[in-house]
Structure formats: structure tokens, C-alpha cells
Amino acid sequence: MSQPDPKTRTFRNELWRSLPAGVLDTLSATFGMLIAVRVFHMGDMAKSIFLSATSSGMMVSLFVVPLLLKARSTISRTAAKVQILGGGFMALSAVFHDNPWMYIGGLSVGLFCFSMQIPLLTQIYRLNYPASERGRLFAIAGVTRAATAVAFGFFGGWLMGLDLAYYRWLLWAFALSGFVSGLWTYGLPVTPWDIDEATPAGLWSALRWVKLDHDFRTLLISWMMMGVGNLVAACLFVEYLANPRHGINLPEQQVAWIAGVIPVLARTLTSYPWGLIYDRVGLFTVRTILNLIFAAGILTFYLGHGVFLWGLGMALWGVANAGGNVTWGLWVTKLAPKNAVAEYMSVHSFLTGLRGLLAPYLAFAALKVMSFQSLSVLCGIAIVAASAFITVRARGSDDETRRRLGPGERL
Length: 411
Prior knowledge:
Elements: H1 6-38, H2 44-51, H3 53-60, H4 64-71, H5 75-95, H6 100-116, H7 118-128, H8 134-162, H9 167-186, H10 208-212, H11 214-234, H12 237-242, H13 252-280, H14 283-303, H15 307-330, H16 332-335, H17 341-366, H18 372-395, H19 399-405
Helix pairs in contact: 1-2, 1-8, 1-9, 1-13, 2-6, 2-17, 3-6, 3-17, 5-6, 5-7, 5-9, 7-17, 8-13, 8-15, 11-14, 11-17, 11-18, 13-15, 14-15, 14-18
Transmembrane segments: 21-43, 49-69, 102-125, 137-160, 166-186, 218-242, 254-277, 289-308, 314-332, 344-363, 375-394
Protein name: Major Facilitator Superfamily protein
Keywords: Membrane, Transmembrane, Transmembrane helix
């Protein structure tokens, strides 16, 4: 019996993998922090460790590609093994669920593993998805992932509302999701990855593209400006609503609904349209629009009062996050040569991880000297400034830049 073509097989496996991935999204977005605050009453340092785990993995991803080249392994199976390892660490947190440091340690290392293999998946999308459909196919899997996160967010909020001690069953669900995600990744096509023998193999070799590619460098600067503002605000969503010392102190189920379900539901409804937009509109334009929606969502959430405005802010942030996921995961495919996508993505992930690693510490430190409202205004200014930066660059673009960053991609 003949195997499906690489595009079909990749899309099928990614659809199935999006189910456990959606469950894991609720860990990093909502339940990890909610359990840390309500069950273990952890301090700022422990919460910052958890919030920075994904970012730490992204930073290490810079070294994954050179090591993979040296090992002569396959892309999909390497990614799968790392995911299964992450599921194993999450299982440790479930086994020792009464120990707060095993809880934080197991989940943090698990998320670290999942984020360090992101550039490998991006390379798979570049090799197996045609350029004209890449955004659409990526977005369909994203819709499934977001819908799963909504459903599990409802379930998890309901379960913890019944009895806070039931959080241990959520930990087992996260561990199982890690294993299942790895199995579906392992089944992705073993596509040949033709690497130029002259390609430098040093651990820092991917950074050469920052010097060589002006458009890449420009967009990385913009992402850094926007990302710091967005991540500082985002890592405090649950803290703002759940921690009694800030005066709001909503019930667990309501926190899960506002911070976990609403933004993911908005992401579910708008991911597919953003995928179509990505395939048809220039990257500078898409990025500018998304930044403005991110800023509007953050300001509405922190400057508004009451459940309606908190929910509206989270909905706007979820709409922007839908488009942000598509552009964040695929934009390097427009710039990079075919077999350098993983290297470009590893640099992008490294810088994302760097700002994500710093963001929780910056956020909690900032709260010692200013209010949530003042901090949100600063975050909004940083995001709008990033839009202004790339708008100026877009107006001065030459024909080559417009070709690379418009609809379609570099061949």
C-alpha cells in the first residue's frame, strides 16, 4: 500500500498532534500558574522559573541545528524524541505532585524540551508544505489546537472548581499529552534534508544570517521590541486576576474562563482567516496590524474594570495571538533559503527565548515600583513603537525586499 505524499502525511499527523498540543497550551497559559498560586502559594522566583521555561528552551534551540547536523539524525525523529523526553519530565511532576519544587521542576523542564525543538518543525513545514498553502495548512492545525485548548480549559476549570486537589489529574493529562505529541511527530515523513557541505557547523553558526540578511535583521529588531512588551504583559494575566494581594481574587473557574478560555476561543475562531491573510498579504502589513491589536487587548485588560472588559481585552489579545502564531511560526520561510529555514528559525527562537526569559523577572520587578495599569501603558508603547519601526522600513523597501516579504516566498 502506497504512503500518502509528504504534504498529506504531514498535515494529517499535525492535525492529530494538535490535540495534545492544545492540552499543553493550557499548561503554559493558565493552569501552571493557577496551580502555583492557589495550591502551592509560590513566590515570585518560583513562578518566574516556570514562566521562563519555554523561553529557556527557545534559547537552547540555537544549538539544536548544529548538533543535529553533527549527529546526522533525521529532523522529525529528533523532534519526537525531545517531545517524549518532555512528557517524561511532566510525568515526574505528576508522580510527586505534593512536592512544590518537583511540580515546578518537572513541568518547567518539560516545557523547556517542547520549545527547544520548534525550529525542526518549522523546517519540516518548509520542506513538506507548498508555499501557496503553508499559512492555510498551518492555521487549520492551529484551529484544532486552539479548540482543544478551549475544551480542556473548560474541563480543567470545572475540575479544579469541584476540588482544588484534583489538580493532580491535570498533571497526568499534561504528561500523557507530551508522550502522544511525540508519537505523532515520530510518524512525520523522513524528508531528506540536503545541507550544503560548506555550511559552518559551529554552535553559533546560525547567527551569521543576522549579519548577512538585512531584512532578517530588521524584522528581528521589531520582534524584540514588540515581544518584550507583549510578554511582560501576558505573563501577568493570571497573577492579576488570581493573586489575592492585588485585590481582584476571582474564583479558579472564573480565572480559567477569562485568562484561559476566552483568548483561546478567539484564537480558534480567527486562526484560519489569519492563515489566509498570511498567504495573500505582505508580512510588514500583517505584522503591523497584529501589533496594534495586541496593544489594544493589553490596554483594555489592564485599564478596564470588571469581567466584561477583562474578557474583551483577552478576546482582542486572542485574535492577535491567532495571527501571531501563524506569522511567528512561518515568517522565516519567506526569507530563508530552502535548507536554512531551521537556522533562521533557531536565531528567531533564541531571541524570543531571551526576551521571554527576562520578561517574568522584569514584570514582577516592575510591579514593585508601579501599578499594573502603568506597566500596561509602557508595554503598549513598546508594541506600537515596533509597528512604527517596520512601517518606516516597509516604505523604504527595495524591490527585492518587497518580493521576499510579500505573498509567496523566496525559492
